[in-house]
Amino acid sequence: MKNSLTAVIYLEPDQVSLRIIELPKGRVINDVHSGALALGSGKIANYAQNMAAIVNNLDGFKQQLKDCQVQDVHFYGAIEDLAPIDARYVADQLEVRTGFTIHWLNNNQLMAKTMGCVVNHLTEFKALSKHCLYLLTLGLDSMTLAFFHHGNFEKQWEIDLGGAKISRLVQRLRQTTTNPQEIIQDYISSKLEYISPELKRKKRTVLLIQNAPVLSNHYIKEGEHLAEIPQEPLKRANQTLGIKINDQQPWAQDVTTEQEQRLVVPNYLVIARTAYLVHPLSIYVTDISMMDGLVNGFADNRAQSQINTMIRTSADDLAQRYGVDPAHKNFVTRFALQFFDQLRPIHRLDNHARLLLEIASKVDDIGNFINQESHYRHSAYILKSNPLIGLSDDDNQIIAEVARYHSAESPTAAQEHYRQMDDDIQLVVAKLAAILRLVDSLDDSRQQKISVIKLKLTDDHLLKIKASANDDLVLEKWSFSKKSQLFNDVFGIKPVLIERGGH
């Protein structure tokens, strides 16, 4: 394969960066970062107010791209707490002023890309995660804690403990109290304690810290990407560490800017409290960054597969947490994917839509945890409150709405939630919901009577579904007669269920 150059530009609330890599090996040709961008006093993502500085840096990046003769450029932005309408305004201004089209990524997408990079490219990861490993990623708006067991991702929690948020609380408290330390520690504890019952505390647990540049710059040697950090200062941080930086912290001399000063101690307190809860045998810091995760998607063909595995694992974890019947879940998922694959000529959706159908099949019944009556509405509510790692906001909305319409309600103009969806996802929701509702009816008894299904599209606009069953399908036929209408409405094809004897 001929070598080629690809550039990734990444806009964060506090900086904008450019990295040029040579493919296929991913060798870094150029790696530059802007000066610090001012965080907002309201929203953390202060892009509109920083527009002049951002455009100035992008213009500088343009010259570097020209000098290196790079044609393939990808521009990403961390959406953080930016409202969707504001994100559109910022994107439009950036395109008008620079010609770059930005692709916004939410925290779950960034985390999945970065965790995949850590798993595949941190040489020591396999050994560190041999038993139990927690990966703590610090952020401005929130922090993420992910759990790996025997090297495999199992679950993750996004927690409202961003460094910028805590820093603001510190500033407010300083105006009302002389020593806000105790309040801050209680605040951090209150945010973390709710996940404490879910944390596994093993003797061989490792805590790995990510996105902590002050710590990684201090401890990690040149040419390496990992370093162990001492635990004693962290233990003291739960007891005696003040809000201000002092000589007790070995990294104090590495804090050079006012913005770092505001963020570093809140982040350090979060690390300390997390360590207290998981009781790690050892603590490490890595300098693998969000930018590394973005670039990894172009240099490593395993990246998307790794992310898809995380998405599926998160969906299975959510289904287990809300008591979904695993046998019914597996039945629906298996046959929904079969229907999708064999009906490609009529739905004309891509493999990403197939993944969304798979995830919706796993979690469509989680609303039963709240109430069986109108459980599909409860499912949608839970899914909107628990976006899955690795998926965009549109993807999570599609899954939630497919779950809403998999049972009784139909995606029509009369439905408020359906009307409010963007035009480009309405049809996807309708098609996936029609398939899922049809398959769900085939196990209405929750007894998995059907073992084999064969599909046949006929010239007279029928879909013949030949089902081999080990028991009568009286309930399934009744449910099918009600739920098949949506499929007919969406595709203009009438499904017909034909029962065959079991094998």
From TrEMBL:
<dbReference type="InterPro" id="IPR050273">
    <property type="entry name" value="GppA/Ppx_hydrolase"/>
</dbReference>
<dbReference type="Pfam" id="PF21447">
    <property type="entry name" value="Ppx-GppA_III"/>
</dbReference>
<dbReference type="InterPro" id="IPR048950">
    <property type="entry name" value="Ppx_GppA_C"/>
</dbReference>
<comment type="similarity">
    <text>Belongs to the GppA/Ppx family.</text>
</comment>
<protein>
    <submittedName>
        <fullName>Exopolyphosphatase</fullName>
    </submittedName>
</protein>
<feature type="domain" description="Ppx/GppA phosphatase C-terminal">
    <location>
        <begin position="313"/>
        <end position="476"/>
    </location>
</feature>
